[in-house]
Amino acid sequence: MKKSVYKSAMSRVKTSEDFQEATYQKLRSEMEKTTQTNRINQKELLKMEKAKKRTLTGWTVGIAACAILSVGIFAMNQNTLNTTPEPSAVVTKPLVGKVAVNIDGAISEVSADGKSFKVGDLWVEVTDKTELGSKEPTASEPSEELLQKEFKVGNIVSGYTSQDASTGKVTADVIYNNMAPQKDNATNPPIVGKAAVNIEGEITEVSADGKSFKVGGLWVNVTSETELGIEGPTAAKPSEELLQKEFKVGNIVSGFTTEDVSTGKVNATRIYNNMAPQK
Amino acid sequence: MYNSYELNESVRRALDLYSQSMIKIAFAYLKNIADAEEVTQEVFLTYLQKRPIFENSEHEKAWLIRTTINKSKNMLKTGWFKSRNPVPEDLSYLPKEENEVLQAVLALDKKYRIPIHLYYYEGYSIQEIAGIMQSKSATVGTWLARGRLILKEKIGGLEDEEICL
């Protein structure tokens, strides 16, 4: 093979006519892409650097803050541990306020002008500033009975004052009530009642007439007024077993009396049962 | 380092000067002009991306040839290249003698084909070929001798030629 033949043959091999131009265009487009990518990369790089800086700054500030806090806490703890608490030089002022004193009781004396009265050892003056009756929102209007206009000896008053009661004379802040005392027993008699005492137990002794019997240490007399059996709408009629007509020694009786048992002998008010003992 | 203007000029100049040589060496490797042109474009793209700095134009040409050979090898290794069944390049437009010689060289194994191409087409010495192919000069000489021997059997001649060391 001669050199010239191969070289000539290879030189004649056809290639694309626009190869150079096409390649150049392709390279240029690639270069633009690369440039854009580089710009983006640079931007990203800048962003990343900024973010890094921010992160670093954040960490620095955070660590500094932590350090300051730690030092502060340490210093405070040192002070707390090393110093003994000194007695406070500041004298706490006593709480100042008005103390209300109740006015409650019977009027024992009234002044000549009728605007002052004495309750216990305290003279109470009623002025224009004294409120009469309760001002509470749910309070009802005071009736004339409960809050009379005139203060009289024996009237029951209630209210309070915020003044010093130790002086012996105060002005009433509020008077809730000023009422006449309850009338005597003649007009309102006391409730009178009888005390009932149970009669219950075994008959130990029976009188000769059979109308009296002894239960415990008490003689019980059965009269015509003594009621027999249980009374009431739902009560059953007493059977002969439970309420025998004859009182015998050993029988179990129950009932009550309203008479004084201290005498040792009473009339039975009612006899419920009079039954023979269980065999 | 080039700026974009210098790079453009550099690439354009390299395209003008070396693109044909690069296409031909890639053709000698791949036996297909379209593939050879594709490989050459890739080489220029690499040139653009890596922006190598050369001592002189010969250095630049050697780098381009070396890169073309490497990229051609890579293309041969790709699956799609192996799996395809390309139509042989139509070289019927060449004179008969030239066609026969070219077909005979392309039929050689690639380890003989490339040194012969670089020797006979590019005019490189064995030492230069050894530098480009990163092989020993003796090895290159052996490849050339064996390639010539095969070609002699096929097309005759070459007895009167000597290998220039």
Largest sheet of chain A, in brief, is: 7 strands, mixed
The shape of chain B is globular
Q: In CATH terms, what is the fold-level topology of the largest domain in chain A?
A: OB fold (Dihydrolipoamide Acetyltransferase, E2P)
Name the poorly predicted regions of chain B. Answer: none
| Name of the level-1 CATH class of the largest domain in chain A | Mainly Beta
Using only C-alpha atoms, the radius of gyration of chain B works out to: 17 Å
Strand content of chain B: under 5%
Strand ordering within the main sheet of chain A: 4-7-5-1-2-3-6
Number of domains of chain A: 3
How would you state the average pLDDT of chain B, rounded? 85
Mean pLDDT over all positions of chain A: 80
| Net shape of chain A | elongated
Which structural class should the secondary elements of chain A be placed in? alpha/beta
Structure characterization notes:
- The complex is a heterodimer of chains A (about 280) and B (about 160).
- Chain A is α/β, with parallel strands linked by helices.
- Chain A folds into three domains: about 20-75; about 100-180, Beta Barrel (OB fold (Dihydrolipoamide Acetyltransferase, E2P)), CATH 2.40.50; about 195-275, OB fold (Dihydrolipoamide Acetyltransferase, E2P), CATH 2.40.50.
- Chain A has helices spanning about 5-10, 20-80; strands at about 100-110, 115-120, 120-125, 130, 155-160, 170, 175-180, 195-205, 210-215, 220, 225-230, 250-255, 265, 270-275.
- In chain A, a hairpin with a 5-residue loop joins strand 8 (about 195-205) and strand 9 (about 210-215).
- Chain A starts with a helix and ends with a strand.
- By secondary structure, chain B is an all-alpha fold.
- Chain B folds into two domains: about 1-90; about 90-165, Orthogonal Bundle (Arc Repressor Mutant, subunit A).
- Chain B is about 75% helix and about 0% strand.
- Classes of the chains: A alpha/beta (about 280), B mainly alpha (about 160).
- The interface of A and B includes residues 1, 12, 16, 19 and 31 of A.
- Chain A: It holds the Pfam family DUF5666.
- Chain A: Keywords: Membrane, Transmembrane, Transmembrane helix.
- Chain A: This is DUF5666 domain-containing protein.
